[in-house]
Amino acid sequence: MSNTILVGSQWGDEGKGKIIDVLTGDMDIVVRSQGGNNAGHTIVDGDKKYVLHLIPSGILRKGKICVIGNGVVIDPVALVVEIKGLQERGIKVGKNLLISDSAHLVMPYHRSLDERREALKGKNKIGTTKRGIGPAYGDKAARTGLRMADLIRPDVFKAKLAQRIKENNAVIKGLGGKPINGAKVLAEYTAAAEVLKPFVTNTVTYLHKAMDAKKEVLFEGAQGTFLDIDHGTYPFVTSSNTTSGGACTGSGIAPNRIDTVIGVVKAYTTRVGEGPLPTEEDAIGDMLHGMGREFGATTGRARRCGWFDAVATRYASMVNGVDQLAITNLDGLDGLPEILICTGYRIDGKGPVLDTPPTDAGELARCRPVYMSMPGWMTPTDTIRKYKDLPPKARHYAETLAKLSGAKLFIVSVGPGRAQTIQL
Ligand code: GDP
Ligand code: IMO
Ligand code: MG
Fold it and tell me: Which of 80, 199, 232, 385 could cross-link 226 (Cys pair, CB 3.0–4.6 Å)?
């Protein structure tokens, strides 16, 4: 495969981790370029299940290099826990992991501010993962952030931290929160720095040299298009660019070095947290939750569920330049006699049919879906391994999703395991 960006074309949790793990087999390097440990990417390898938050989903594959790029925000303590957790399970994390020296740090005051701001928003809360992501990116934009390069220089880190603790504690107190103990943070972060230091490098030059040597790179998106800070359902979004452009800025790789963009979608729609979700349908959520599915990989919250929204995914294909579509969780619809696909919106269910989502979240919340109906295939698909063996109605459904999304059908996934992947 050539240099490829993989993004979520919905509201996150599309199954990106599973698809990355499958595609890594043909790649040399996997790069995360945005987000932080708000992400939860699930990989099932035989009877073992892994949930990755900061480490790229290529880590389970031997001989592959994983890079945490400059655009990621890193909670160093959480990253150490993740590294040790994988090592304890026999997964090699050593020279195969590189961490950008310019990635920003998530600090305990970011988590505290995230929690306080959400509490103060009351019923208007975003429903964040409370991992401190928004305040960390806020500091980055305000030019008051601390970076990996600071963390691994003890004197620099100590001095900068003292100043940041002072300012942030004043804000936290003003918001009714408990001040952060600077000495405790210094001790915890210094210990994490010891572990992380060997991994830290200039990943931008590393990636360029590797690409010059014809290594093939897969960029692993976190979150999804409608959680993008610019293109999502603002303010119910995360704080980074989750769309394909974010992969370039978040890794230092120019757009003209990218060959392909893959969009991942579920065969239906899910969202965790607050904000508009036009096709939300409790009955679908009840069915999927009843099957033990659609609980958040990071927070365990039940995901909101609904029918496939082709208005949204078509827009996502446009913004990301999606060439190829990977559809996951097709098996989730195996038992349904009838399946709906949203092909348009009408505001308050009246007036003209919209074929692109309104950018205003309030207006999007008023959109009522216009559906087309398709017959279900009513056959288990989870043991099927070849595209031609899928029930004709399932193939027709997948092909319709791809057509409506304006992308070429590339993968159909019928279960969480590696083998349950049909590549066209
Ligand atoms: P990500 O954040 O995009 O990597 O997705 P998550 O891991 O948060 O959520 C996707 C969920 O769907 C995980 O539990 C996966 O194991 C699971 N999954 C992925 N593809 C399939 C599939 O085709 N069928 C089923 N049944 N589960 C899948
Ligand atoms: P992956 O990579 C789904 C959602 C949160 C909340 C909003 C803002 O697994 O697809 P944040 O903590 O980022 O400030 O929360 O974004 N969110 C995700 N939803 N999957 C994710 O990541 C998410 N990361 C953040 O639920 O609505
Ligand atoms: Mg997830």
Answer: 232
User: Smallest Cα–Cα separation from 9: which of 157, 231, 259?
Assistant: 231
* CATH numeric code, 4-100+199-262: 3.40.440.10
pLDDT tens per residue, range 149-195: 999 999 999 999 999 999 999 999 999 999 999 999 999 999 999 99
Strand partners, 408: 324
Q: What residues have their beta carbon closer than 5 A to ion ligand 3?
A: 13, 40, 297
Question: The domain 264-423 belongs to what CATH superfamily?
Answer: Adenylosuccinate Synthetase, subunit A, domain 3 (3.90.170.10)
CA distance readout (Å), 408 to 1, 10, 115, 264: 16, 17, 41, 12
110 is catalytic: no
328 C-beta closer than 6 A to ligand 1: yes
pTM of the model: 0.97
Contact 223 CB / ligand 2 (< 6 Å)? yes
Top-tier CATH class for 104-196: mainly alpha
Average pLDDT, the chain: 97
43-94 confidence digits (pLDDT tens): 999 999 999 999 999 999 999 999 999 999 999 999 999 999 999 999 999 9
Q: Is the CB of 42 under 6 A from ligand 1?
A: yes
Task: Give the Å distances, CA to CA, from 65 to 101, 109, 199, 216.
Answer: 17, 32, 12, 11
10 Å CB burial of residue 20 (0-12, 13-18, 19+) is buried
